[in-house]
Amino acid sequence: MMTRRTTLSLGIAAAAVWAAARFTPKSQAQGGPFELTLSEAEWRKRLTPQQYEILRDHGTEYAFSSPLDKEKRAGTFACAGCDLPLFSSETKFESGTGWPSFWKPLDNAVGTREDRSYGMRRTEAHCRRCGGHLGHVFEDGPPPTGLRYCMNGLALTFHPAAG
Fold this sequence. Notes:
By secondary structure, this protein is α+β, with helices and mostly antiparallel strands.
């Protein structure tokens, strides 16, 4: 016989299981056959605490906080975790969102997967080589792709063109 206490207990147990699955740190949840795999300690040694939070735990920096949002020089934006070239400055545009935005990544540089965190359905962008979280892809960008790769500046490094 289902009593109110049993129903409440089952509800609490279901909520606990859902929360544990939903809020597992992403660095533990993201797998993938990436070329570069390091232990948590090795990533923490390689990255600043803020970079680790973004690249390994899928964090987000504050809007308008990255100098790379205003970077206008010719060059290449690479992964801050493994230095894989990701975006050309030729595809960067001013989105007004406060994060560096690009309409296209370099070939074979960025992977994507569905992100259902925070009750939303989005497309997450990650480094193809190390799996580091870069940001998200939205379908409100300029031609020719109509895409906006909205990236965390701390997930990137900038290499100016030789010149």
